[in-house]
Amino acid sequence: MPFHSLRGFRDYLPPDAGARSEILRRMRAAARRAGYTELETPCVESFELYQVKSGEGIAAETWLFRDKGDRPVALVSETTPSLARVYVDRAKSEPLPVKWFTVSKIWRYEEPQAGRTREFLQFNLDVLGVPGVEAECDLLCAAALLLDESGADGLYAFRVSDRALAEGLGRLYGARDPARFFRAVDRYRDRTPAEFEGELAASGVAAERAAELAALFEGVGAGIPPSGLDAFLSKLATRGLDDSARAGADRLRALFTLLDRAGLSDRVVFDPTVVRGLAYYTSTVFEAYARSGDHRALFGGGRYDHLIELFEGPPTPAAGLAIGDQTLELLLRGAGRWPDGEPPLDTYVVSVRPELHAEAVAIVQDLRRAGLSADCDLLERSMSRQLKEAARRRCRRALIVGLKETGPGAVVERDLATGAQREIARDAVARPA
Q1: Which domains does the chain have, with CATH numbers?
Q2: What gap in Å lies between CA 303 and CA 131, rounded to an integer?
Q3: pLDDT tens digits, residue range 159-199?
Q4: Which of 36, 160, 268, 356 could form a disulfide with 286 if both were Cys (CB 3.0 to 4.6 A apart)?
């Protein structure tokens, strides 16, 4: 009986596995350039860790089982609880601010669909210990660098809002069930106007007020650009926002000022329909979305100032975001920017006769020790087939050992892009071109 991968799981074969590795290499390098250091946590945690943050409902999408000690454990369904656990253990000695990034496999038992599998990679950025919007600015600047370096430059933008402002809108428009109101707002872009107004009504908003709020969101369109932010927020304030909502509006003004100075005004908009689904977000929330196509969300994040305390740590302001590999891959493939695979080999060493294989191996080792990527044939193939293999692997050059016309102690170097070739000394093969 043939075996297949389980539903919601994927195999990644060459060259796709190499392409994924290359994307992660670029993203890791970008995170380090932005001042983030890498944290690695286990792929299995105590199930209680997730219950602290999300309650009993988390079990529905968690790969939950009991270990040999009959303890409830789970495959990691998100990285933030693990990060909180680590930080609480180190809080007294860890200098602030903390800027960590993690690259983790995540498992969630949910319905597979385009851009969503049951096992995926997630790239997280988190900042702890910064109470002001400087943290959110740093996260979005770092996220922009990561996306640009991955090949998504020009393909995305950020939607930004504030939960306190959204809560204030709910109170202003008469919502009696804040959780339902948030769910309605969060799904606004996936609903018809009638459906949206119906969901608002279910949260306690009167029909007339629901129509008024729907009209307000419709006027937002694809989002309010930085140049129109102050006017829009001032107009909202005149409708009767309370102090908490006004504070949220002030945070947005401060954040957008920083983002403008950081050069991100071309890729950030205010969107009051962004509230994010997770209950632990406390103020600023944001997501990246594709500029074209279905405008799908690429990642989400925000501020979670009370999470560390849930894990019995000291009061610690915090903000973070998580980028999933599946949605990023769809974006890059759709734009024709998915890498061909891992970076090509620099050199392929070709031996004209099988008895020269040992010399080819020696040259390959010299090249690798010098920091160059190199390989040679292992199947005693003909010279022409070895050269075809070198071309298939996108090598920069071939070094041919054993041609009759070659002088003593020399090899032939062939440029595989132009076909030009020259004779070089054997002891010079590992020198820079």
Answers
A1: 16-334 (3.30.930.10), 347-428 (3.40.50.800)
A2: 9
A3: 999 999 999 999 999 999 988 999 999 889 888 989 999 99
A4: 160
